[in-house]
Amino acid sequence: MSNNPMNERPFPSPLLAPTCDDRLIWEIWLSRYHLPALTVADQIGLFSFLAQSPATIEEVAVGLSLGPRGAEVLLGLLSALGLLVQRQGHFHLSDEARTYLLAESPYYHGDILQILNYPVTAATLREWLENDRAIACGGGEEDVLIRAWESGEMSPEMAAKVTSATHAHSFPAAMGVARNGDFSNVHRLLDVAGGSGCFCIALATRHPNMHFAVMELPTVCKLVEQYAATYGLQGRIETIAANMFTDPWPSGYDGVFFADIFHDWNRAQCLHLAKRSFEILPPGGRVFIHEVLLNDTKDGPLVAAAFSMTMLQLKGKQYTARELAELLQVVGFIGVTVRPTYAYYSLVSASKPAE
After folding, report:
1. Angle at which helices 156-180 and 218-230 pack, to 10 degrees?
2. Domain of residue 332, CATH code
3. Are residues 66 and 138 in the same domain?
4. Are 303 and 344 in contact (CB under 8 A)?
5. Which residues share a beta bridge with 241?
């Protein structure tokens, strides 16, 4: 056998030019640096540094103790990604960076960048795909988080870390729900597994006559109270300590709300949540499911498809509007509607039939 591998591969003769260029492969390959670059920039305080005053490459290198070549490369990539804007050799924050990457912003995403900044290797991903879920790989922080998430047993320290990370990630979408969601005839809304209560906070600012309750794990409920107090909403957002799968649900609500909940769980578990919602709602009551939706053929949009890959770590996936409508209809809901709310998110809602 020849030692030259080129001689072992059959090529067409004559050799034809490729039918397309390889830009897509380049983009996918080099996208591996996007998230680490963003995370490092947040860690070293780059965005806060530039918020004080736009700076040159040399000024960034000196001010943040970076090598001059490293500063040039980092600033260039972040600019290409749309997070920085260069004017006359000085780098400025883009609107996206100013809104989502400054710690003083209510929508700061830095916490979730840090908590989810663990590597997903090809070997790890293959394991997820073959097992239809993540398998514990040595008790790392991500394993501990996933097991706690699924069991519903979080320490106060872990609850604080997770709630802080998900709060800012969800708050912009919550503001979109408040602006674009239809909550007519809903007076008392139960937010199931509502995290920090950010959706209730946003809705409370838009609907002054509505009352809200966040049903969460006991360790999270204490945090909800703190977030509500920050916005002066102590009297309008109550908390109910309960595990949504194992504990009784409260009655007295004419709306039940889920945000980024169904995508965590498999179809049987989602059916359980839909059924419990139907049982506690009065005739005419409404259920709301806020999710990043896949299209009906499940091949896009890209963010939804990639988000679905993330859910392999848990038990769920991103659903289509048709799949969620079918889940709701199976347990008895009618009048399913789908309304875009914010960025990639949509609000699926339905009603319990009136008697």
Report:
1. 50
2. 3.40.50.150
3. no
4. yes
5. 216
Co-location of 243 and 325 in the same domain: yes
Task: Label residues 127-159 b or e (16+ Cβ within 10 Å = b).
Answer: ebeeeebbeeeeeeebbebbebeeebebeeebb
Do residues 95 and 200 both lie within one domain? no
pLDDT tens, the chain, 355 aa long: 456 655 566 777 788 999 999 999 999 999 999 999 999 999 999 999 999 999 999 999 999 999 999 999 999 999 999 999 999 999 999 999 999 999 999 999 998 988 877 788 899 899 889 988 766 544 555 666 666 666 777 888 989 988 998 998 899 999 999 999 999 999 999 999 999 999 999 999 999 999 999 999 999 999 999 999 999 998 899 999 999 999 999 999 999 999 999 999 999 999 999 999 999 999 999 999 999 999 999 999 999 999 999 999 888 999 999 999 999 999 999 999 999 999 999 999 999 999 7
* Tokens found for residue 114: 């840090």
Q: Is residue 190 classed as helix, strand or coil in its secondary structure? A: strand
| Residue 16 falls inside a structural domain | no
Pairing of strands 286-292, 345-351: antiparallel
Within this chain, do residues 197 and 277 fall inside the same structural domain, yes or no?
yes
Of 105, 135, 152, which residue constitutes the final position of a domain? 105
Q: Which residues contact 123 (CB under 8 A, 6 or more apart)?
A: none
Q: Give this prediction's pTM.
A: 0.92
Tell me if 349 sits within 8 A of 289, measured CB to CB.
yes
Q: Among the options 169, 263, 272, 290, which is catalytic? A: 263
Q: Which residue has the tokens 């919602």?
A: 277
- Residues spanned by the domain of 268: 125-351
Check if 187 is active-site. no
Are both 60 and 207 inside the same structural domain?
no
